[in-house]
Amino acid sequence: MTRIAVVGGGRIGEALVSGLLQSGHAVKDLVVSERSETRGEQLADKYSVRVTSDTADAVEGARVIVVAVKPGDVESALAQVAKADLDNDDEQIVVSLAAGIPTSFYESRLPAGFPVVRVMPNTPMLVGAGMSVMAPGRHVKNDDLELVRGILSAVGEVTVVAESKIDAVTAVSGSGPAYFFLVAETMIEAAVGLGLTRDVAEHLVVQTMVGSAAMLADSGDTPNELKAAVTSPGGTTAAALRVLESRGLRAAFFDALEAAATRSAELGATGD
């Protein structure tokens, strides 16, 4: 099995460790670098993996080094990684799960020619249903990319884009769960306003979204076709959709995703 070092034991780092173990990776092939002693003990007790506060020790000899810290902590994490005996002859690769940090930032701080894969994950990876989008750096080979794809597949779906498209990806799938949760929250509040209890409202909305997402994923029909199948002429759904359209729902989403992409680009520029 591939030896993997995860730098950062937060929620995303833990989700990756959990998914890898569930997909068959051996405990002995995983190591986590975590600065918090309390958090490190929690991870070691829960997953039986080796946890250390010494990042250089954690990444030594690892085939894949996953940087899963907050964007503001990447600089210090890389400084610790660089203290290890990194060697391109060992075909090591760095995988970044930190939002807004371009591959050039890593490449300028690692040995010349070091391969870096930038990944935009999203929070559903915490339940094994993530959407991870990979953007290869200048020195990444096809074999490197397929190796990373296999690792990320342990926590959901994976696709590849050019790094120039990462800001758009961030706006869609990176930030996307929040839009979904906002719609759910709003529907629940509206249902309570119609006289349903909150428990019943939450149950109806959550299961409706789960079922609708399953239809989108499995039916082979487009969103427009599925919407049309629910919408009878002159019926209740048509009445509701007419209001949403008249209130500018489509324009709001266009503007929202554009704002998210713009902000992603701004954050990336500060991290370059």
Descriptive report:
The chain has 272 residues and is α/β, with parallel strands linked by helices. The chain folds into two domains: 4-162, NAD(P)-binding Rossmann-like Domain (Rossmann fold); 176-268, Orthogonal Bundle (ProC C-terminal domain-like fold), CATH 1.10.3730.10. 52% of the residues lie in helices and 13% in strands. It has helices at 11-22, 37-47, 55-59, 74-81, 103-107, 142-152, 166-174, 176-193, 198-218, 223-230, 236-246, 249-270; strands spanning 4-7, 30-33, 50-52, 64-67, 93-96, 116-120, 130-136, 156-160. It has an eight-stranded mixed sheet with strand order 3-2-1-4-5-6-7-8, with helices on both faces. Strand 5, helix 5 and strand 6 form a beta-alpha-beta unit. Helix 7 packs across helix 12 (249-270) and helix 8 (176-193) crosses helix 9 (198-218).
